[in-house]
Amino acid sequence: MHPLDNVIWTALKTRHTRFAERFRQASRFVREVSPLTAFLDPSPDGYSSLAGLVGANGTASLFLDEPYQPRNGWNVMGGAPLLQMICDNGDGSASSQETKLPITELGPADSADMLALTALTKPGPFGSRTHELGTYLGIRSDGQLIAMAGERLKVPGHTEISAVCTHPNHAGKGYARILMNELMHRARRRREIPFLHVREDNTRAIALYEHLGFRTRRLLHYVVLQHG
């Protein structure tokens, strides 16, 4: 199996084990880190394990290979088709020299600003400890965090670029591209291949990612389920 197949499961079983909570054939991240959840396969045993993991009225955010089919005991709370994109040969070429504003590494002291920016721009689920999954980079203007991007899922030989967002008042200045290029460059120095996930209908973001050298690897189906 390719490391990017069942990527959440693989991350929790390999490079992100310290963030994992498990029950039989299901696993999830500690809630403050991420709502992402996975099971070994979408079989009756998989869904039974998932139910045991999340408990009554608990939720699970899954990446599925096929559109979700209704099951007794589960209610759909949301979701969308996703493209999984991979950059096989681009390593990033931009640097902080392209902007007068420096790129800084973000950490625990920046958590509130990161949560505020992601709440405003909604690049995807982001929690108070998501930044612990990898390197997160930001650009500030007059002390305000105006752009960020970071590393989320890590599996053998691959690192996901995630939480790419820019404050609406500073859009169109190339900050997302600059931050992504820096993260791609760092991944390549570690001999890792960058990948990402993006909503299938987010054509503007997809165009940027293709310009940076990403190609679509597969279509996934993101779904948020509630048990009970």
**Oligomerization status of the protein chains:** single chain
Low-confidence blocks of residues: none
Distance between the termini: 32 Å
Strand-residue fraction? 35-45%
Can you give a write-up of this model?
The protein has helices at residues 7-13, 44-54, 111-121, 175-189, 203-211; strands at residues 20-23, 26-29, 37-39, 59-64, 74-86, 103-106, 136-141, 144-155, 158-166, 193-199, 215-227. The chain has 228 residues and is α+β, with helices and mostly antiparallel strands. It has 2 domains: 7-82 and 223-227, Aminopeptidase, CATH 3.40.630; 85-218, Gcn5-related N-acetyltransferase (GNAT) (Aminopeptidase, 3-Layer(aba) Sandwich). A hairpin with a 2-residue loop joins strand 7 and strand 8. The two termini are 32 Å apart.
In brief:
This protein is of the alpha+beta class.
Annotate the secondary structure layout.
Elements: H1 7-13, E1 20-23, E2 26-29, E3 37-39, H2 44-54, E4 59-64, E5 74-86, E6 103-106, H3 111-121, E7 136-141, E8 144-155, E9 158-166, H4 175-189, E10 193-199, H5 203-211, E11 215-227
Parallel strand pairs: 9-10
Antiparallel strand pairs: 1-2, 2-3, 4-11, 5-10, 5-11, 6-7, 7-8, 8-9
What are its keywords?
eight-stranded mixed sheet; 228 residues; globular; alpha+beta; Aminopeptidase; 23% helix; three-stranded antiparallel sheet
